[in-house]
Design a protein that fits this description.
It is built from 26 helices and eight strands. The protein is of the alpha/beta class. It binds iron/sulfur cluster (2 copies).
Length: 448
């Protein structure tokens, strides 16, 4: 079994709507026994009530394409495969172990060969796939954010369809601002400076900087490095690393995802660390699955698999090493599970253990915390109606617990939930659990 690329654009027309990528993977479709256990877990099925927008229905469509009963360019295949969030809530509840996430990426690649993705998707993937374009894009974003234009635009623009996406984009950008500023303003004097950073006994680590994380949430990467060092890890910088490729893979651009993944494997190999630390759930899930991405490339598959073995969510590393306790940070947090941490990586308790190491933090789990927020990579932008509906439900759930801040360990979720809060005029900001641990260590004087 291997994940293989289909033909390039030159042969696309000759192949027509054939299910090239899916056809090479037809065995992955076989385990589905049509039991329907996955249906109640699916946010799109729950909202739309259409079997075609359920995991079982989408697998049925994939099978129909593979068997030649449905064209990959048909509206049915394009619409329902496109409408999937890729949240993978259907995987852990499936008794047959259907690899839905992998199949979805192959279905999207097949769909893209039959009909090119929309302009917005193509533009965002082109920007994220180029370090130069990405750098310029995020520099403009940081400027708009710093002068307050992002928040102002999000509030001032009307909800007209033609401007709805710009309004949402600006709200998402505004939501990337420093969510800790309110808590930091209440920081007491440093309580003690007698607890210096531990030695490097926990092992060596390099941190994935990421694309959105590096461009708009650089403070979280800084907090990640500091808290890892404070827990005994030797942190090494890695030059030449790139976007993890998750956005490309989820959109069906598997060739683009492999190009970025290869660059990361080569860059991290050069420093030879024990672990690759990731603080973005979507990136961690994608990098842990690099072995699957390169199954069809025997020359690189072994290296990709060895790399994937070393990838850890930052909460896994911190829990392995303690984490040590710092000074109290009194506040209540509304915690929401990112899909790609809980469903794709099977990690739910470790970020809560990180928060549990911060005295004074009262964790309130958001009702329905295991359901997608509607952000789902670029879904919130490409599907403003359904993504907005799902996001609106999430924001109401977040607000229902009445916490000081919302908290979730994934930049896409932080942007989606933060944008919803901004558009509602809500006072809560959104933070990453690492930011609260970092604040706790700042207050304890660990970095003094
Ligand atoms: S739970 Fe698994 S086996 Fe059952 S219908 Fe859903 S995907 Fe198929
Ligand atoms: S990935 Fe999420 S939206 Fe897509 S079929 Fe599975 S549960 Fe439904």
């Amino acid at each position: 079994m291997s994940v293989t690329s289909g033909p390039g654009p030159a042969t696309r027309s000759a192949q027509g709507g054939l299910a090239i990528a899916l056809d090479a993977q037809r065995e992955r479709l076989l385990p589905c026994v049509h039991c329907g256990f996955c249906l109640p877990a699916c946010p799109t099925y729950n909202r739309l009530g259409d079997e075609n927008d359920s995991p079982r229905g989408r697998l049925h469509l994939m099978k129909a394409v593979v068997e030649g009963r449905l064209d990959a360019g048909s509206d049915a295949f394009q619409t329902h495969i496109d409408r999937c969030l890729g949240c993978r809530a259907c995987e852990p509840v499936c008794p047959s172990g259907v690899e839905y996430g992998t199949l979805l990426e192959l279905a999207r690649e097949t769909a893209a060969w039959a009909r090119a993705p929309g302009f917005l998707t193509r533009t965002l993937l082109a920007v994220m796939g180029s370090s130069r374009l990405r750098g310029a894009f995020f520099a403009v974003g940081r400027l708009l954010r710093s002068v307050g234009l992002a928040g102002l635009g999000a509030r001032a623009l009307p909800k007209w369809a033609v401007l709805a996406n710009a309004r949402l984009g600006l709200a998402m950008l505004a939501a990337t601002g420093d969510g800790m500023s309110g808590l930091r303003a209440a920081r007491p004097d440093v309580t003690s400076a007698d607890a210096p950073a531990r030695g490097a006994g926990a092992g060596s680590v390099a941190v994935l900087e990421g694309c959105v994380q590096d461009g708009l949430f650089g403070r979280i990467n800084g907090a990640t490095e500091r808290t890892l060092r404070a827990n005994g890890y030797a942190v090494t910088a890695v030059r030449g690393q790139d976007c993890c490729g998750a956005l490309h893979a989820h959109a069906g651009d598997l060739a683009g995802a492999r190009r970025l993944a290869r660059r990361n494997v080569e860059a991290f190999e050069r420093v030879g660390v024990d672990h690759v630390a990731v603080n973005a759930a979507g990136c961690g899930a994608a990098m842990k699955e690099y072995a699957t991405l390169f199954e069809g490339d025997p020359d690189f598959a072994g290296r990709a698999a060895a790399f994937a073995e070393r990838v850890r969510d930052v909460s896994e590393l911190l829990v392995d090493a303690g984490p040590r306790r710092g000074a109290p940070v009194p506040c209540s947090v509304a915690y929401d599970h990112p899909c790609h941490l809980q469903h794709a990586q099977g990690i739910a308790r470790k970020p809560l253990a990180v928060l549990g190491a911060v005295d004074g933090v009262e964790v309130r789990i958001v009702p329905g915390a295991d359901e997608c927020c509607g952000g789902a990579g670029i879904y919130g932008m490409t599907h403003p109606d359904l993504g907005g509906r799902i996001g609106g439900d999430k924001v109401r759930a977040v607000r229902s617990v009445g916490a000081d801040v919302a908290c979730t360990p994934n930049p896409g979720c932080m942007m989606q939930i933060g944008a919803g809060l901004r558009l509602e005029g809500a006072p809560e900001s959104v933070v990453h659990p690492i930011e609260l641990l970092d604040e706790s260590y700042q207050r304890a004087g660990y970095y003094a």
